[in-house]
Amino acid sequence: MTHEELKYRQGWTLEQKIDHSVGVVSAFLAKVGDKGYVSYSGGKDSGVMLDIIRRFVDKTVPAVFCNTGNEYPEVVKFVRETDNLTVIRPEIHIKQLIEKYGFPLISKEQSQYIRQAKHTNSEKLRNIRLNGSINGIGKIAERWKFLIDAPFDVSERCCYFLKKKPFAKFQKQTGLFPLIGTMAGESRLRLQKWLQHGCNLFDTDKTASYPLSIWTESDIWAYIRKFHLPYSPVYDLGLRRTGCMFCSFGCHIKGDRRFYFLKEHKPKIYEHFMQMRNNGITYKEALRFCGIDFPDGTDRQTRIEFLHI
Question: Fewer Cβ atoms within 10 Å of its own Cβ: the N or the C terminal residue of the chain?
């Protein structure tokens, strides 16, 4: 696959994309012997994927929702109305994860690089994270290198323990393979995966289908309007993404208002998350340290002040 091919397919009509997704799902289920399940988050994207599969392919395909304990209450309530749904849960709480591994800051990729640079015993890996590999990739962005010396840890491990591990356990117990409603244009990692494998991954230890890879957010809303598809009411409150309420991946991007939303609509939950600690530093203090815009960030402390705590 190429970038040009993705751009071309993203320009298809909604009807063409629906037909494409139906073909992707049908080919995947045929390959895995109809042993598929929908990885359902309760968000609009996976909701559209679930509807496409059950409307056009196989109405008996099960949906699986992982209740991390950090989902919006409206999303959990909405998910419970779904037929043929299995709910799974992680074995550890987010508070324990943050205490042990650190805060999920910037992005999943950058958090991983920062964690590795700070704690690895391999000088080779540390050098790659600081300077990049031969082709220049795999390194911490210059603007975030100061986090290596932060008085708290940064980590992406919450995604593994709260979502990947519970789903992996479910798949091992049932022998089912996931259909996942992510889009290639959402992140660099998802784009790379699509460029390498396309919409269906086979013959790997991560066999999975991504039927919405060539879709865009506007396509999702167009499908919802076309079929009058129900969706979680949190979107009507102005929220653009669901998922874990505490997650700050991407919240440094200008215009992101997720924590403003959380403080306005879920003040008790907001305060609970902001007081979680790693190495004695609260989530609120870690956000200030990064210079991230959030409701309590106007009196953010300087990094020098932090280093003298």
Answer: C
- Three-class DSSP category at 208: strand
pTM: 0.91
Q: How high is the pLDDT of residue 304? A: 46
Instruction: Give 81-111 pLDDT, tens digit per residue.
Output: 999 999 999 999 999 999 999 999 999 999 9
Closest CA to 252 of 300, 217, 219, 191: 300
pLDDT at residue 306, rounded to an integer:
52
Question: What is the C-alpha separation between 288 and 50, in angstroms, rounded?
Answer: 39
The domains found in the chain, sorted by start residue, are 3-93+158-237 (3.40.50.620), 105-154 (no CATH), 255-309 (no CATH)
Burial of 299 (0-12, 13-18, 19+ CB in 10 A): exposed
